[in-house]
Amino acid sequence: MKRLISAFVMMVMITSAFSQKNAFEIKVKLNNYKDSVVYLGNYYGSGQYIEDTAFRSKGNEFVFKDKEVKPGGIYLIITQEKQYFEILLDKEQQFSIEATAPDFVGSAKFKNSKDNELFYEFTRYNRDKYMQSETLGKRYNEIKDTNKDSASILQKQIAALGSDIGDYKIKFMKDHPNHLMSYVFKASKDVDVPEAPLNSKGVKDSLFPYFYYKAHYFDNMNFADDRILRTPVYHGRLENFFEKVVVQHPDSINIECDKVIEKSKASKELFKFTLWFLTNKYEKSQIMGFDAVFVHLVEKYYMTNEAYWVTPTVLESISKRAMQLKPLLIGKVAPELILPDTAGRYISSHNVKAKYTFILFWDTDCGHCKVEVPKIKKFYDENKKKYGIEVYSIDTDADLDRWKNYIRENNHDWINLTGTKANIDYHLVYDIYSTPVLFILDKDKKIIARRIAAEQLEDFMRRYDTNNK
After folding, report:
1. Which pLDDT tens digit goes with each residue over 152-190?
2. Which of 53, 277, 347, 432 is the residue whose CA sits 20 to 30 A from 353?
């Protein structure tokens, strides 16, 4: 019986010892560094985040450790002065680093991390080429207008340095196909567009390069591997695609959002980030009409419970916001307003006879309105006949006497209405949380502009009316 107990106790002790061993442990020694704290950070999307802190030990080292491995990616060793240098974390999660301030990159030495040794061979090579290129670039800018022959030679030298880096990456990927940096290099690679084919008339298709580039933009991205999230690459590729590649129209953006989101579903983390990135981008967009993308994403992914990580409270909030904006999207018929004028007669916004109806929400006691409304009035006076404009002006102030006096003093010879009585809660329906707010409707009372500034009126009306004709 005693032998059985002893064997059991021994098994518990061994199991405990194994369970306490750290799966992740890196030791950092920083020469010429006097502070007592160092941070471990990581990339995620476009940000850099601190996720751990280490204090100087008696052996003059900083140790980061955890019982669980870290997800693969590019991480940062950050000093108190916010200086940092990068390291790789992937399959190797137990190693040591020694570096000397201030040139951490140039002096870094690794023990038990072949991945980081290779990473730093490239990092130093890349830094050296960049410094050479920067020196040549400064010289080029000095002589480009005075010595074109020498400037041309410098341009070729700068291009050669870029080619050298490209060749290095190709060789690296060939020699180390499973290295994290090979994945990063490939994901960062731009599209090689082939020569455009000839059409039936024997002429090259001028649109072929664009459509090919867009269709193959993400060919080098492995959407099943979420390590790319913990590098600066994925966010940059997404941002560039939706800012510079996709046609800047809500319908086109919606199509491309759905394509990229579908690709991202190969990884839960990538799907989660991609949907968040696009939703956040278009919810906050200041470009008129892009709120349609936000509404599309919420309806298709959040309100169908595909965004499984969102809490019920957040889901309710974001769904409510999207449904509030949906009736106000460009191209929708504006919700009907029925309000009393200065004589108490109720007038419908849908009954205004005009080619263009301006719906203006303002407040006589609003400082910003006192600046913006006179500009709108000036545009109206100068262009009402040219474009066929009528203004349906709603004062949100409850002081009727102040409203009427302001109308007389400023010659507001348009449709003046008080917002004290209305058929709907226009603050909610028209999303009025500040003033002034201006909507522009066409002859069918469809919204063609929303929250447009006074300074934009002349350019917008000229372009829209010309295109409409």
Report:
1. 999 999 999 999 999 999 999 999 999 999 999 999 999
2. 432
Q: Tell me what the mean pLDDT of segment 73-95 comes to.
A: 95
Rg, the chain, Cα only: 31
Half-sphere exposure at residue 415, Cβ-oriented, CA atoms within 13 angstroms = 25
Domain 338-468 is classified in which CATH homologous superfamily?
Glutaredoxin (3.40.30.10)
Terminal-residue alpha carbon distance, the chain = 100
Six token digits for residue 273 = 């980030």
Q: Are 371 and 363 in contact, with CB atoms under 8 Å apart?
A: no
Give bridge partners of residue 47 from the DSSP assignment: 44
DSSP code for 313: H
Confidence of residue 468 (pLDDT cuts 50, 70, 90): confident
- Residues 15 and 366: their CA atoms lie apart, in Å, by 71
Residue 125 burial class via C-beta count within 10 angstroms: exposed 0-12, middle 13-18, buried 19 and up: middle
CA dihedral defined by 235, 237, 238, 241, rounded to 10 degrees?
Answer: 160
The span from the CA of 184 to the CA of 132, in Å, is 24
| Amino acid 3: pLDDT | 44
CA atoms within 13 A on the CB side of 467: 7
Cα separation, 24 vs 251, in Å, equals 47
Structure tokens at 460: 């917008």
Average pLDDT over residues 188-213: 91
Q: pLDDT-based confidence at 20, cuts 50/70/90?
A: low
Q: Which amino acid is at 226?
A: D
Distance, in Å, from the CA atom of 129 to the CA atom of 298, rounded to the nearest integer, reads: 46
In sequence order, which residues have a C-beta less than 8 Å from that of residue 183 and are 6 or more positions away? Answer: 222, 225, 227, 228
- For 360, phi then psi, to 5°, come to -115, 120
- pTM, to two decimals: 0.87
Task: Kindly report the CATH number that applies to the domain delimited by 20-112.
Answer: 2.60.40.1120
pLDDT digits (tens, 9 = 90+) for 403-448: 999 999 999 999 999 999 999 999 999 999 999 999 999 999 999 9
Exposed/middle/buried for 241, CB within 10 Å: 0-12, 13-18, 19+? middle
**Dist. CA 435–CA 452, nearest whole Å:** 12
Taking only the tens place, the pLDDT of each residue in 352-387 is 999 999 999 999 999 999 999 999 999 999 999 999
DSSP designation for 28: E
**CA quadruple 25, 31, 33, 36: dihedral sign:** positive
- What local confidence, expressed as pLDDT, does residue 17 receive? 42
At 120, which helix (H) or strand (E)? helix 114-143
